[in-house]
Amino acid sequence: CRKPVNAGRQNMRCDEWTRVSNVTLDGGGEIHGEGDAWWNSEKYMGQASQRPHILFPFYVNQLVVKDLTLRRSPWWTVHILACRDVVLSNIYIDAEVAFNSTVYPTDNVDGVDISSSQDVLIENSEIKPGDDCVVVYALHPNEMATRNITVRNVTCHTPFSIGNGADSKSSFLF
Questions:
Q1: Residue 36 has what DSSP assignment?
Q2: Rounded to an integer, what is the distance from CA 143 to the centroid of its chain?
Q3: Which of 9, 10, 166, 169 meets the CB 3.0–4.6 Å disulfide criterion with 141?
Q4: pLDDT, tens digit, for every residue of 107-141?
Q5: Parallel, antiparallel, or unpaired for β 118-128 and 147-156?
């Protein structure tokens, strides 16, 4: 994803989907985010929020992502925002902080970030992020509370495994 695309909304980025239902991504493939191009760009150093995610479902109901590999995201790998009934199953996330003997500064490359969403299941997966593994937020005070989040049989390769976001502005329930 190199630049914003016009998809009916000004400045909608190619990593966003909005207001859709019954979406499934599966099949054993790989999505490569080309994160090192973003991590090494002086323009984006320290400005993580300007970089794209690999997957950014926004107001999506009934989303299933399974049997996929997500590599080297420029920012948070999967950002689930204001969604309901989401299943992430058998996914492999790898930030590849080191590549060809080069260590890249992966500023805030989380595995999965969940905000203002309900009924989310993450299972049977392996996550090697550059920062947090799974984070639960409630970033938008006018959106629904974050609730019914289940994480099971997930291997996290980071000291920052599963936590709540410090920037939360609304309620969330475990």
A1: H
A2: 18
A3: 169
A4: 678 899 999 899 999 999 999 888 889 998 876 66
A5: parallel
**Could you give the CA distance from residue 125 to residue 32 in angstroms, rounded to a whole number?**
17
Task: Tell me the two tokens of residue 69.
Answer: 């590999």
Q: What does the pLDDT look like over 2-19, one tens digit per residue?
A: 433 333 344 445 455 668
Contact criterion met (CB below 8 Å) for 164 and 173: no
What are the CA-CA distances from residue 129 to residues 14, 40, 170 (Å)? 22, 17, 26
Tokens 């299972």 appear where? 123
The three-point CA angle 87-109-160 to 5° equals: 80
Reported as half-sphere exposure (CB side, CA atoms, 13 A), residue 124 has a value of: 8
75: tokens are 């920012």
68-85 as b/e: b if 16+ CB within 10 A: bebbbbbbbbbbbbbbbb
Beta bridge partners of 119: none
Q: Give me the count of residues in the chain.
A: 174
With H, G, I as helix, E, B as strand and everything else as coil, classify residue 110.
Answer: coil
